[in-house]
Amino acid sequence: MARKIVAGNWKMNLNLNDAKALVQQVSQQNNREDVTVMMFPPALFVADVASEANGIKVGTQNFYFEEKGAFTGELAIDQIRSVGGEISLIGHSERRAIFAESDELLKRKVDAAVDADFDFIFCCGEPLEIREAGNQETYVKAQLEAALFHLPKDAFLKSVIAYEPVWAIGTGKTASSDQAEEMHAAIRSWIVEKYDATTAEKVSILYGGSCNENNARELFSCPNVDGGLIGGASLKADAFCAIIDSF
Ligand code: PGA
Q1: Are 228 and 220 contacting, i.e. CB atoms less than 8 angstroms apart?
Q2: What is the pLDDT of residue 173?
Q3: φ, ψ for residue 142, nearest 5 deg
Q4: Element at 170 (helix H, strand E)
Q5: To test the ligand 1 pocket, which listed residue (230, 236, 240) has its Cβ within 8 A of the most ligand atoms?
Q6: Residue ranges of the alpha helices (H) in 99-164?
Q7: If DSSP codes are grouped into helix, strand and coil, which group holds residue 163?
Q8: For ligand 1, atom 9, which residue shows the shortest CA distance?
Q9: How many CB atoms within 10 Å of residue 86?
């Protein structure tokens, strides 16, 4: 069985005081031991959030694949770890679209994470025009093949996948549970093809894109949806905890 996961991607929101208050409230309110809860605050706050977190895995929204050196503005895995960060997102659609992160770069990040034994959530998802043309499965499969499916089984088993249709992110327009389930089932079938059925059952596949306290229950009840990567609704403790409780 894949682990149930609810992860909050705070993006470029909140200041230090808000960040501490949010992690304290969620730590207090959440009592679900069967759900792995994660938070991805702005990197600047990872140390503070990690030190306040109780039963929550804290990580970064991004990192660079090099170990150290002249890479102004970037963060290395070892630096993230040294302040309590245990995981990172890789390839969020905003990194791909706004910061022009290529499949090639994402593959290097995946490899760097695996080499350092650092956990990650690999994000994929199609833009609106691809969905409208009905090519979403080809598109998402290509993203996975370009930067994730090259891993050997042992390394792949440690990854978490987040399917986030770009047209649903921050738009208030959620994928229907049928649309989510269809893509998640397809992703799982590609894992069976590439690796095997046992591997496919163990890897968590999260849904992201306007997932909130009102629709999480329906999305999480889909057999192939193992949880959510939550943006906007992760910024309020009550909403985020209600999403965790939706399982
Ligand atoms: P959203 O963001 O929940 O605000 O749509 C999800 C994400 O980008 O991870």
Answers
A1: yes
A2: 84
A3: -65, -40
A4: none
A5: 230
A6: 103-115, 128-132, 136-147, 153-156
A7: strand
A8: 231
A9: 15
What local confidence, expressed as pLDDT, does residue 11 receive? 98
pLDDT in tens, 118-161: 999 999 999 999 999 999 999 999 999 999 999 999 999 999 99
Q: Measuring from each residue's beta carbon to the nearest atom of ligand 1, which residues come in under 6 Å?
A: 9, 164, 169-170, 208-211, 229-233
pLDDT confidence of residue 118: 98
- Please state the rounded mean pLDDT for residues 172-182: 93
* Ligand 1 atom closest to the CA of 233, numbered from 1: 3
pLDDT per residue as tens digits for the range 214-227: 999 999 999 999 99
Question: In the chain, what are the domains?
Answer: 61-234 (3.20.20.70)
Q: Half-sphere exposure (CA, 13 Å, Cβ side) for 49?
A: 27
Residue of minimum CA distance from atom 6 in ligand 1: 231
Centre of ligand 1 from the C-alpha of residue 68, in Å: 30
Q: Respond yes or no: is residue 182 known to be catalytic.
A: no
Torsion of CA 151, 157, 159, 164, to 10 degrees: 90
Mean residue pLDDT of the chain comes to 97
Q: Is 164 a catalytic residue?
A: yes
